[in-house]
Amino acid sequence: MKVVILAGGFGSRISEESQFKPKPMIEIGGKPILWHIMKEYSYYGYNEFVICAGYKQHVIKEWFADYFIHNSDITFDYTNGKNEMTIHRSHFDPWKVTVVDTGLNTMTGGRIKRIQKYIGAESFLMTYGDGVCDVNISKLVEFHKKHGKIATLTAVLQEQQKGILDIDGDNAVKSFREKNQVDGAPINAGYMVLEPEIFELIDGDRTVFEKEPLETLVQRGELMSYMHKGFWQCMDNMREKLMLEKLLAAGKAPWKKWAN
């Protein structure tokens, strides 16, 4: 099962750093938050990624182009008038990464639509490139397969202005409203499991995934929620970035399961 990560937005609310790089490439603990998210999925055995890039997409491509060299012990030998390179030891992850330029101004749904050919007719995982979580992805996938619906999203309880969910007793999502009040209701934390039928609900580049597609799924009874009571945190601004940095520095980063 491939992992799709939305990484194309402007990150205007954290412009102190996003003026130089895409928000998913802003570092926490010396590594891009995108890397942290990928490590989460890799911990559960998901190692094939499709990155939906856009704003400053070349930064993401260049980072992965250098990833092997930056994580290897290398000898550069110029003594014979040649440029010889010997790899002694590598420390990189077993990843297959496809970085797709999904457009500068494309909306979230449009970005997902553009990578359809890389997914095909398979189920896939999808999340946003600016938030970390300690959700058990194996149990999330198991829950999705069991109910048989088109989509599952991870829901968390936080008092923040995110996509507000109205969830029924059977975990079916009964309504979805995007960023219009703070009321402590369950919110959409990303970390989704999607069936390929989702592509049929996306018209094109101007489609906001959190609006028409998810609202249509709600109307059809095809959107389920996986309730997560653990840690989740997005990185919308410098305050949140510094909070994540502090957790990492203190050795108390709940999402960093691969280090345990």
Q: Topology, please?
A:
Blueprint: E1 2-7, H1 15-18, E2 27-28, E3 31-32, H2 33-43, E4 48-53, H3 57-65, H4 67-70, E5 72-77, E6 84-90, E7 96-101, H5 108-114, H6 116-119, E8 124-128, E9 131-133, H7 137-147, E10 151-157, E11 163-167, E12 173-178, E13 186-188, E14 192-194, H8 212-220, E15 223-227, E16 232-234, H9 238-249
Parallel strand pairs: 1-4, 1-8, 4-7, 10-15
Antiparallel strand pairs: 2-3, 5-6, 8-14, 9-16, 10-13, 10-14, 11-12
In short:
The protein has 260 residues and is α/β, with parallel strands linked by helices.
Sheet-strand content, in percent, reads: 25-35%
SSE succession = EHEEHEHHEEEHHEEHEEEEEHEEH
Helical stretch tally: 9
Query: Which geometry do the CA atoms define?
Result: globular
Structural class: alpha/beta
Computed CA radius of gyration, to the nearest angstrom? 19 Å
Q: Span between N and C termini?
A: 24 Å
Mean pLDDT: 91
